Amino acid sequence: MSYLNQRRVSSKIVECCNELFELEYRTKSGKLIAALGFKNDRGGFELRNKFLKLSTSPKAITTIHGAAKALNVFEGFMDYLSALTYYNTSQLEGTSIILNGVGQKKDLMEVIHKYDQVTLYLDNDKAGYDLVNQVHAVHSNVRNMGLMLYPTSKDFNEFLVKRKRAENYSDQRDVQTVGEVIASIFPEMPT
Asked: Is domain 2-157 classified as CATH 3.40.1360?
């Protein structure tokens, strides 16, 4: 879970995520590896730790069903967990599809017509922009949060990490400012 702390994902949110597991596996050389596993719709996993980013077979999207006729689309599970942290919720309104890579866009395009609104949380790179354009071509009610919420970040998680660092810096400045105020009022008190 320290990996999630580095990525600034809330541990409280993670506890509510039924698709996320802590896994251990052995490599062919016999080395034991611990990683986060995010389960997809076909029983495969996206595996992440500080040193690796890989998938097990079968590769597929992950669908988290919701009640509303709205669809949230994420490129990867770390961006999904970042959204839950940012919005401080255990589930987003509507259904969420985590592509587990833009290579799974075919699965998305097959179901996108079922939803009244599509909100995209894709990476701000060529693959992300290309998928935004493809979704716009087949759906009339699309919001691109990559441009609206985190236009200067590579993805939602990078945005969250920057934001949390800025908040921590601001909190530290506030504490220093309060300390400075106290010191100015009570100069004889040790600081």
From this structure: yes
